[in-house]
Amino acid sequence: MKLFKKMSLMAAASLVAVSTLVGSASAASSLSGKITINGSTALLPLTLQAAKEFQKLNPKVKIAASGKGSVTGPQAVKKGIAEIGACDWDASMDVPGFKAFDGQVANKVAVIPFATIANKNVKVNNLTTEQLKGIYSGKITNWKDVGGDNADIVVITRAFGSGTRVNYQTKALAGGDIVKKEKNYKEVGSSGDMKTAVATTPNAIGYIDLVYVNSDVKAISYNGVAPTTDNVINGTYKIWAYGYYMTKGQPTGATKAFIEYVQSQKFQQGSLKKLKFIPVSAMH
Question: Which of 53-69 are b and which e, b meaning 16 or more Cβ less than 10 Å from the residue's Cβ?
């Protein structure tokens, strides 16, 4: 009789557990909505991967993501054409060159390391803050002046409104100028365009977030420190920034659920790290 009672209790407990699981699965799969994400191309690889995983868990949620530079993210949210504006800075606050977007909430989703890159024919492996300031201000125009071959430096930069440009100018150049010159100067509109331009232009120098760096280009050390995620975490490499998802007020519904997925330990410690971003918790 005691055994029967024990088995009955175990069966009841199992039924509750199964019901709970079914309920959770049902709640997850019933989530619906459409999320449009615009803004940072630096964050785009993270967004695309997260969207792929989130939609697999929530097939009734449709996500459209594109990147045209950080400032277009909060601008799209302000215009009501995007639920999420991906941005390489906290756009709810004033930053040099850009006013705050009133009423928007900055949801922190990642740490983004940035790297100086050069064409693979360049023999320089390290540049100091002063050398980079000289190159981007137009005072240093030949690689031989920083330890390389006798060849003109081709400067490639991001267009105004790029979060990568904002962070690189603030941190790598210590607030120094990026001076436009007709000769050996080029602007590009996205992180992907930057990698292609530097990879295909002999003697070129540029900058990009670490996720885009591969064997097509050469990553250059900064003040003797290599641009790696480990060096960001241990505090020796200074060129990095938090990435944000800007929303109009506090996020709700499918948008809230998607942001929480990106902020979850599963995604932060999994796909996000594989993409060479750094979990937000690593910098606390």
Answer: ebeeebeebebebbbbb
- pLDDT over 90 (residue 19): no
97-111 pLDDT tens trace: 899 999 999 999 999
Contact indicator for 144, 187 with CB cutoff of 8 Å: no
Nearest to 69 by CA among 158, 139, 136, 199: 158
Contacts of 11 (CB under 8 A, 6+ apart): none
Q: HEC profile for the chain?
A: CHHHHHHHHHHHHHHHHHHHHHHHHHHHHCCCEEEEEEECCCCHHHHHHHHHHHHHHCCCEEEEECCCCCCHHHHHHHHCCCCEEEECCCCCCCECCECCCCCEEEEEEEEEEEEEEECCCCCCCEECHHHHHHHHHCCCCEHHHHCCCCCECEEEEECCCCHHHHHHHHHHCCCCCCCCCCCCEEEECCHHHHHHHHHHCCCEEEEEEHHHCCCCCEEEEECCECCCHHHHHCCCCCCEEEEEEEEECCCCHHHHHHHHHHHCHHHHHCHHHHCCCECHHHHC
pLDDT digits (tens, 9 = 90+) for 154-198: 999 998 889 999 999 999 999 999 998 878 999 999 999 999 999
Q: Give the angle 206-131-87 at the CA atoms, nearest 5°.
A: 40
| pLDDT of res. 284 | 67
